[in-house]
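fold-stage: in
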Amino acid sequence: MAQKTELDASPAAAVENSVAPETRSAEPPSPNRASGYLRERPNTRFFLIGAVLVLLVAGFFAWRYFSSYESTDDAQVDGHVMPVSARISGYVSKVNVGDNQYVQSGATLVEVDPRDYQVAVDQARANVGDAQATAQSLNIDVPVTSVNTSSQVSSSEADVSNTQAGIAAAQQQFDAAQAQLLQAQANDVKAQNDLVRYKQLVDKQEISQQQYDQAVAAAAANAAGVAAAKASAAAAAQQVTQARGRLTQAQANWRSSQTGPSQVASMRARANSADAAAKAKQAALEQAELNLQYTKIIAPATGVVIKNVEVGMNVQPGQQLATVVPLDDVWITANFKETQLKNMHSGQRAEIKADSNGRVYKGRVDSISGSSGARLSLLPPENATGNYVKVVQRVPVKIVLDPGQNADHSLRIGMSVEPKVFLK
């Protein structure tokens, strides 16, 4: 019986023994067996712990690095774009630059035919000479007129005084002639009365004929004296009248001389007007010279020129002829999300990677715009409706390059770049 059991067990053992060793090894070890395995191999345990620590340290430093900066791919190179326009009208006679040519500040880009403007300058210069000569002549006449009027005033005043004195003298002569006339008339009356008495006496032969003849002669002489005195008085009266006439003329001359200061003021006003006209002509000359200078259109800055003018064009004032892009003064305009601006401020270090050449440029944050880009767009978004959806806005940040970073002018306006701003 025991032999049979032993025989029955033999096939099962044989089957168990017939299973492949790989099948037995695939069975999971029990926890006791695993712990025993680790206890048997301590190096593996230390290796796993070290790997976990390394991953933690690497993750910590990676977190610190990626949180130390903010970056964006919505950025481009920006700069000044200087339009060059004509300030006068005219015919383009010469274009001295080609497309994309590098020019220095002050270089002549375009020349307009200057002949018309040269003629205008010559004419303006001649007008200035004529106006200055007229002004000089009038300015010379002012002191001459002033002296002449002063002399006329003094002379007229002297004439008035002299004629007044002449009237007084003539009046005295007239008074003396009147007195002489009265005396002569009195003598004549006496002589005539004596003649009447002598006539009576001579008729009575009481006196001699000789005495009577003397009385007749005396009466005749007195009558002649009266006539002479009357003539003298009339002449004296005429002298008085003439003196008064001279006084009237002298007073008229004096009143005329009183207008001298007004004449001087008028002459001075004409001289001032001539001076102003000369200055106006001088200003016109300067304007003509400026217009002549404007026939040469120069570059306002050093940079690359983009022209849109050709020889033979007739240009007008304000017409754009070229554009100068100064590559020595470019910066980066980076549109960061508003959530990236929490710790960003002016002066922070930045690195800019250019898409065109892969080069990394050094710079710093210059300023942050006062408005988002959407608000400054042509059609700002309107969120006043009830269907409001919050959208993260982007704010332009200006990043300037360190000196000498773009010395080779490899950065051109409008190029795409990827800036990083280091916050710590």
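fold-stage: in (second)
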Amino acid sequence: MQINFHQKHIHLSDAQKDYAQSKIEGLARFKVMEDESVVVKVDVEYREHIASDKKILMAVNVHIPGEALRAETDCVSIEEGIDLIEPKLASQLEKNKTAKQG
């Protein structure tokens, strides 16, 4: 699995990248995520013009063989964002696993 980070109007610290990477790597419990061809793109954008306190838009795109999964959220911090996105991706991966078995 290859994980790429794309940042817009924000800089992610190494600790934030490591945290996001560890959460995404936790999805390796799904066999499809172990494939070397899986590419994960983490997009993080700071949106100053938003009136809400949730000024960070975080989206994670997972490209697995034959399919693409996506989850996104508005959040206050990078850690909060990845904590919200991880279960969304896990749910999609579970549906994908069930569909392929059935």
